[in-house]
């Protein structure tokens, strides 16, 4: 992989948006104190109050809702005459208990359900030939985003949810469940973890930390999902548990791929967190196990930053500017420590162009696929555990 990493350098472009954000906070910049952050929060809330359009029934409890348009009504109303439908009572919905059917399918001529049928020399040659264009990549990203949006829309309708009634954390839980199962843990020191299409979150933690944990683990899921769709395209195969297991193996079999996956997750999490509260500890733990030059480490981070940029775009379809502002306000309420900008120096501010991104994906899949073919027993063991 050494020569492959070095060959990617000609495809690097600056991540201008990220660089400009960080430049404002690195040495020479006046950092915000905790007191200043709370002052900003007050200003934000004042602006929100100024812009609010209160209903004519201000002061009257709105206990009914139109199941079609979502408008709220007081208890004495029975119909939404705009939509010609009967109103329903607003019920408290426990978002944590909602189950969302979120299967992301791929259809192909082959339906591999045995590792020996997937990990063939013929399929290795197909990956090496890599008949895959950026238009194919864009189609995959659009399909994943569209399916998750439909999942979310169906969940809102089926459970008669009013997003305005949800807390910030509940909104993030709901949209995360549109991609992947979310379960809750109440033991162990880690904030959360991802294991084969399931995110585990410690719900004893502060709301803001649960939010960033979900975004971090969701990135692991989306990395796996995107690469699975690409592998299915290359092999003209339908998505099966075994195909997903191969990708899960590829993302974890080497320290280099673990670093790419973990740095991407940290980067996405960091883009929805206040600057000064980024945490790259797990990335650093992986980096310390890799004997690579500084340039090679930076290239691995560039690959990860490029994937994170794609995933950030998917997530921004759900977390708009208003919800992002709310998340930051929640973070300021929960976190008492002053911001620490030292870890911003770990940020990578370069991206691969389209050709470079495709070459990087090919390198990751090709090397990992070859390793998987030598570890069928390990794959079967992992598949049974998941």
Averaged pLDDT: 86
Number of helices: 15
> Over the alpha carbons, how many angstroms does the gyration radius reach?
23 Å
Shape label = globular
Write down how many β-strands occur, each being a DSSP E stretch of 2 or more residues. Answer: 10
Could you characterize what this model shows?
The protein has 386 residues and is mainly alpha-helical. The protein is built from 15 helices and 10 strands. It has helices at 2-7, 16-23, 34-51, 115-118, 121-129, 134-158, 168-177, 207-235, 241-252, 255-271, 281-287, 294-315, 321-334, 354-373, 376-385; strands at residues 12-14, 62-65, 72-74, 79-80, 85-86, 88-89, 181-185, 192-194, 198-202, 350-352. Helix 6 (134-158) packs across helix 8, helix 8 packs across helix 13 and helix 10 (255-271) packs antiparallel against helix 11. The protein starts with a helix and ends with a helix. Mean pLDDT is 86; it is low at 29-58.
């Amino acid at each position: 992989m050494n020569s492959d990493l070095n060959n990617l350098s000609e495809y690097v472009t600056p991540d201008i948006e990220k660089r400009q954000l960080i430049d404002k906070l690195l040495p020479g910049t006046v950092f915000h104190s905790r007191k200043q952050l709370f002052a900003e929060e007050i200003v934000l809330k004042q602006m929100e109050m100024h812009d609010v359009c209160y209903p004519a029934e201000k002061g009257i409890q709105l206990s009914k809702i139109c199941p079609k348009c979502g408008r709220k009504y007081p208890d004495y109303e029975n119909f939404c005459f705009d939509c010609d439908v009967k109103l329903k009572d607003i019920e408290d919905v426990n978002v944590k208990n909602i189950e969302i059917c979120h299967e992301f399918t791929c259809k192909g001529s082959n339906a591999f359900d045995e590792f020996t049928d997937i990990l063939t020399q013929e399929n290795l040659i197909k990956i090496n030939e890599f008949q895959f264009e950026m238009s194919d990549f864009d189609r995959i990203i659009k399909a994943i985003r569209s399916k998750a949006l439909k999942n979310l829309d169906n969940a809102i309708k089926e459970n008669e949810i009013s997003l305005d009634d949800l807390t910030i954390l509940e909104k993030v839980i709901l949209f995360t469940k549109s991609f992947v199962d979310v379960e809750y843990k109440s033991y162990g020191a880690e904030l959360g973890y991802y294991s084969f299409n399931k995110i585990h979150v410690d719900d004893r933690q502060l709301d803001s930390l649960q939010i960033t944990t979900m975004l971090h683990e969701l990135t692991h899921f989306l990395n796996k999902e995107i690469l699975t769709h690409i592998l299915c395209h290359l092999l003209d195969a339908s998505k099966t548990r075994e195909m997903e297991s191969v990708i899960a193996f590829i993302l974890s079999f080497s320290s280099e791929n673990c670093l790419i996956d973990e740095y991407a997750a940290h980067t996405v999490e960091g883009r929805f967190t206040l600057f000064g509260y980024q945490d790259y500890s797990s990335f650093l733990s992986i980096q310390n196990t890799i004997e690579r030059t500084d340039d090679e480490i930076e290239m691995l981070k560039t690959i990860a930053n490029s994937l994170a940029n794609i995933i950030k775009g998917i997530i921004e379809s759900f977390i708009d500017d208003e919800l992002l502002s709310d998340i930051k306000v929640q973070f300021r309420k929960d976190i008492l420590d002053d911001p620490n900008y030292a870890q911003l120096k770990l940020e990578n501010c370069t991206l691969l162009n389209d050709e470079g991104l495709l070459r990087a994906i090919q390198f990751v899949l090709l090397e990992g696929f070859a390793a998987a073919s030598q570890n069928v027993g390990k794959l079967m063991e992992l598949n049974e555990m998941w």
